[in-house]
Amino acid sequence: MAQPRKVIITCAVTGAIHTPSMSPHLPVTPEEIAAAAIGAAQAGAAIVHLHARMPEDGLPTQDPDMFRRFLPAIKAASDVVINLTTGGAPTMLVEERLQPALQLKPEVASLNMGSMNFGLYEMLNRYKDFRHDWERPYLAGSDDRIFKNTFKDIAHILESCSGNGTRFEIECYDIGHLYTAAHFLDRGLVKPPLFIQSVFGLRGGIGPHPEDVMHMKRTADRLFGHDYHWSVLGAGANQMYVAAQSAVMGGNVRVGLEDSLWIGRGRLAESNAQQVSKIRRILEELGLEVATPDDARAILKLKGGANVAF
Known about the structure:
Layout: E1 6-7, E2 9-12, H1 30-43, E3 47-50, E4 52-53, E5 60-61, H2 64-67, H3 71-77, E6 81-84, H4 94-104, E7 108-112, E8 116-117, H5 135-140, E9 146-147, H6 151-160, E10 167-172, H7 175-186, E11 194-200, H8 210-224, E12 228-234, H9 239-248, E13 252-255, E14 262-264, E15 267-268, H10 272-285, E16 289-290, H11 293-300
Parallel strand pairs: 1-16, 2-3, 2-13, 3-6, 6-7, 7-10, 10-11, 11-12, 12-13
Antiparallel strand pairs: 4-5, 8-9, 14-15
């Protein structure tokens, strides 16, 4: 009898999209981020995708010292694969965004495949009261903000980290980003197997319609053949049904409070682990098996948790 296919669950723990006033459950302090990551791993996440925030007000930061305040605790408590952001926030310069991956040499790091409009301003229609001065202008200014990821920026990140042995989670918010990934594969700056993370439902990127998901998968199949592994994330209310569609199409999944604050209609998720547990139940009901961290290392050909700089 054939063994069930193993599906990698990534959990994006805190991110830079949501602000602390949007949910009391969003991890902000180093201690909260560590606890959230460990909880997600215990619930079944093979990979945790991590951003950092300033503990006093939740402002996103790419200061490697802030990452150093929670990474050792996660590593000591779990063998989960750690994935650090090079996206940071759209307000940051690329050199600032690069530093955690460059200095800390994680097994996996995210990498955006193109410049884009990145609209968060519609959240102001849903949230009226903010605790910190930076939150409202951060959201409001996104209607005139470009998330800059030029070919030069992408090449700079890849070349800077080329000696680290880090595998990049290649974030594709639209079809053209897949072609950009293929361009960097042709240039030899990324190596197979590619780990393609397709993002659906953010304002400025591809939509979450099932046809959009299928179009992204067909295009990736045509460009990369057997030299890649596919994962998806759906923003907001799209989270679980986009993940379920990916699973039945042979892909992997990403959940977490970076992507959605919700666990159901009108119900805030109380933890990242709660979202991981929900998608795990869905996967197992579909007859699929949840990949362990070591499964993920083997599937993605990672360098191993002993070969990082934290």
